[in-house]
Design goal:
The chain has 149 residues and is an alpha+beta fold. It contains five helices and five strands; from the N terminus they run H-H-E-H-E-H-E-E-E-H.
Amino acid sequence: MIQVKHFELAELASKTDPAAWAHMRLGTVLKLEKARELYGQPITITHAFRTRADVDRLRRAGYEVAADSAHQHGYAVDISANLNTDIEAWKKLLDALWQAGFRRFGIMRGAVHVDDDPKRPAPAVWKYSTTSPQIWVWAQGWMDNKREV
């Protein structure tokens, strides 16, 4: 059984299947735990493992959901990041996630998607239709700097 210090197993579960936390990849959960330690403040997970029913529900609600998402394979989490356009706050969060080993970042308004799916290109950063233009420009530069290291 996975033992986590900073998160409830229910946070890692699907919205339609409370036992789905068991499908999360151990490496992903361990990176999330490390990120929380490095960040030094609570991290709120809004989505983790997703069932097909979750994908359908999100699409009906108008959210952008990738086909064959890393969430469906237990490699991804969405983290609430109500940081508005506070660049320093975004930097602190993304740096902690990077230092923990995540290399894939989807920048949303009010949230960030991170995953460590080994079948997808990394490092990578992308935006969604809701992404703040100011944060997107900053995030691209942040990723460019990470790629150079």
